[in-house]
Amino acid sequence: MKIVLLGKNGQVGWELQRALAPLGRVFAFDSAQADFTQPDQVIEQVRRIQPDVVVNAAAYTAVDKAESDVERARQVNASTPGALARWAAEQGALLVHYSTDYVFDGSGAEARREDSATAPLNVYGQTKLEGEQAIVASGCRHLIFRTSWVYAAKGGNFARTMLRLAAERDQLKVIADQIGAPTGADLIADVTAHAIRQVQRQPELAGLYHLVAAGCTSWWQYACFVIEWARQHGVAIRVEPDAVAAIPTSEYPTPARRPLNSQLCTDKLQTAFGLVMPDWKQGVERMLTEIHQPTLSRS
Ligand code: NDP
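Structure tokens for the assembled complex are given below, as produced in the milestone run.
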């Protein structure tokens, strides 16, 4: 099997380089080699290789910046994925793509299903939804995975930021009324590889799926979990447990509005592919151990 991976250096792209390797020959591109603001260049790279599968991990993910950079966000998240999808439809290739909980407005308390009504609150969510729609409209065989609150050991992430702030400050304020499931890029990549193998054998499994870790938390609970882990593992922190204040979203204004309820139901994914999603804490603990390995092995 020949696989083209686009966006190879992002959180998910990096893990896909590992997870896709046993499936066949992987041709991986970064944003300079396949720039989504230049669709012709992206299509030319793919055409040259004639892959059986295209995995698109490239995206415009700067949620707040997208509010004032609409055209670029739309090009990267919707127009170029649409062009890729039309190429895949012509060639009979499978297109794998990622989307987001931000396609929903986050109202109510229920976990969203794949067919729940979409209503993005911000430009990023709107352009990601347009990307999904362009792929479906192309008629290509596809796997679209909607995920949420992605983290990876490589690069910056929420947990790392909390650890840094907890080491620098006596007090922290963290949003407590946005809930969702922190999901590891490694889990997303592993499920992707598994699903690609199964769809090659059972094409009827192609479609849209929610792919998030099990369980649910708020940013505040997530921060407390990270800080407690740090305390138990001897990582230097200054903030006391009762000095992590829970604040409402209204106290932390950002250019882009975010959904309060980001829960995604994964029943469809688990049933179709025979998978069990692990609890979010399991992956976060692994990531914390990885990023603090040098500290832990010295202590
Ligand atoms: P990252 O921001 O870590 O990576 C995005 C990748 O896209 C980077 O490799 C980046 O390259 C690349 N990229 C950005 N602009 C362009 C461009 N113009 N041309 C080509 N490549 C470009 O994202 P994640 O790995 O976290 O996200 C993977 C998928 O998951 C995306 O579809 C995202 O929308 C979705 N998702 C992410 C969430 C999150 O919390 N991060 C939540 C829900 C969904 P470079 O580094 O060179 O700029």
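The chain has a mean pLDDT of 95. The CA atoms of residues 191 and 211 lie 8 Å apart. Further analysis is deferred to the final report.
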